[in-house]
Structure formats: structure tokens, C-alpha cells
Predict the 3D structure of the following.
Amino acid sequence: MDFELSDEQRILRDSLDGLLANTYRFGQRYKYMKEKGGWSRAIWNRFAQQGLLGLPFLEAEGGYGAGPVETLIVMEALGRALVLEPYLPTVVIGGGFLRHGGSAAQKAAHIPSIVDGSKTFAFAQLEKHSRYNLNDVTTSAKKSADGWLINGEKLIITNGENADVLIITARTHGAQRERCGVGVFLVPANAKSISKRSYRTQDGLHAADIRLAGVEVGAEAAIGDVDNGLPLIELIVDEARAALCAEAVGLMDESLKTTVEYLKTRKQFGVTIGSFQSLQHRAADMFVALEQARSMAMFAAMATKFDDPAERAKSIAAAKVQIGRSGRFIGQQSIQLHGGIGMTLEAKIGHYFKRLTMIEHAFGDADYHLRRVSESGALV
């Protein structure tokens, strides 16, 4: 199998790396964190101008018809730079729901606004009791005269503070954990009867908890089959997991480079600590963990195109296991090799580890996905 990037893909990678090198130095990131919602509109507009926000959409929809490899390239670069802007919730998740399940009218109403950067999305799925179970949904959507009436609570919604549109999972019928009866709805973030509580998360991003107290939406708000939306949700979440795997590889790659540079400059007993053989061995172990993660991230990107949902889910779960394990190991080693300075807010290495930790728990940690792989029979 050929793993070499095409000329177009290399241009994408190099142009994005160049943009981020000029606009996303570590000190600049602090400035962006202080803007409303915790990210920069100016940077988001630069992403739009460079065509990054339109990558996965068809050319007829104003996009570029790119695939999972291009998403991998972008997410890895965003990870290396610790980017705060909501590419995952808007382009990968929001765009994914529209591409795979949206009607022609929904695509026309939202995709151009994603591509030009004027509209961002947030995925409101998690509830107090649901943990990693996508079909554990108590938020309800009841038929009304003109559409739907939505009631419930959703937690830890990345970009929930700034989003223009919320993608909400809600139960149209059935018991709390039934696989059938889960629908997906596009809800304006400024709709009446929505209350928000916003806050900063450990990795520097912003999230929000929301309460929906009888939110009224039209019939056109429903995406796909309102009574059997779980397969669509599982597909989009698998694509999000693959994208997170790629972001984590970027974070690990930069963590290793930063740590090696520190080993080359930090002196003890009159010599650089990088000359100590034991520390060289630990850096080598970090490199092995990184390459294992990189291989599985590439596998996850390819697995998003598998026709068999069970095979896709099993493959991406296996990738998430390796990403979680490699991320934890590289993050812990990076902090330890930096010593006390690695624990300070001024050192960027700790910020990489925080983001890796949040990715580990997004849409299922390593233990959860290892159980999924085992239950699928892949370990037999």
C-alpha cells in the first residue's frame, strides 16, 4: 500500500504549516484564548481564505471534495500548533452530519456558511448519565403542530459558547438506552428557551452546558431519519475519533521534538542531560510510541471509508486504544524529562499533555475502546 502523499496533499500540509508557523506561536495562543469563546475569529477567517473549511465538501457545494487523508493532514497540523479554533465540531462533525445525512435544503442553508467561515457548529450529545454511550439519551423531541419540541440537558459542548448552530441528539420514542428512537436536530444556538453555562476546559478550549426547556424547531430541523438516527451518529462520531487520533499524533510529535530539544540544552553536572544514555533510551521509547500511534491514526483515517459499520467501528476503536496509550506515555515522559519546569503554565509541554488527556477521554478512552475491540472478537 502506498502511504506517500500526493503533490496536492503535500501542498496542503506545507501551506498549513506555513500559516500556523506565522500566526500560531505559543505566545499568540494565549492572546487568542482571551477572545470571546476562547478562539480567534481572525484566524478562523484565514482558515476559510485558505480553503481549509471547505475541504470535505463536494465541489458543487462550494468545497474541494477532499477525503479522510486531507482531514488527517489538517488535524495533525492543528495538533502540532495547539490550535483552539473549532475545526472538529464545525467541519468534521457539523459538516459530517450535513454531508452524510443532510437534505438538499439543509446543505444549501449551512454548507456555504461553513466554507466561508461565517457559521460554526457544536455537537450537543453528552448527558450526565451517558458517558461514552451514544444511544443513552433522555433529551426528548416531541412532535408539535409545526415541528418538534425539545427538552433536556447537554453537557461539555465544545464551542457551545460561540456556535451558531447546535447539533442535538434527542429521543423521539423508546426507553433511555434503546438503539431505535434517537434523532438528530439542527437547532439555532440563539433559539428561545435555551440557557447556557460556559467555561474553560483543562486544555484551554471553551465548552458549555445547555438546558433546553421546550425549544421549538421546525420539521426541517431534523437530519435524516428521526426515529433511527443512531447509525448516522455512530458514523460521524467514528469520523471524529479518527480526526482526534490525527490531532493527537500532531501533539505527540511536537511533544517529542520539544523534549528532545530540551534534553540538548538543559545541563546537569556540566553536561547536557541529553548525553545521559538512560534519557536517550527514554526518548527512543517515546519515538516508538509515536510511530505506533501514527500508523494507527492512518489506519483510522482509512477505516472511515469502510462499508461495513462493524468493521469500521472495530478498526477505529483499535486506533483509539493505541492513541490513548501512546499519548499517555509520551505526555508523562515529556513532563518528567522536563522536570519541574514542565509543570508550569509558561512551558508549552504541559499544554500538550493536557490536550492529549482531553483527547483520550473524548468519545471513549482506551479502556472503553479496548473492551469494544474485545467484544467484537478481534482479540480472539
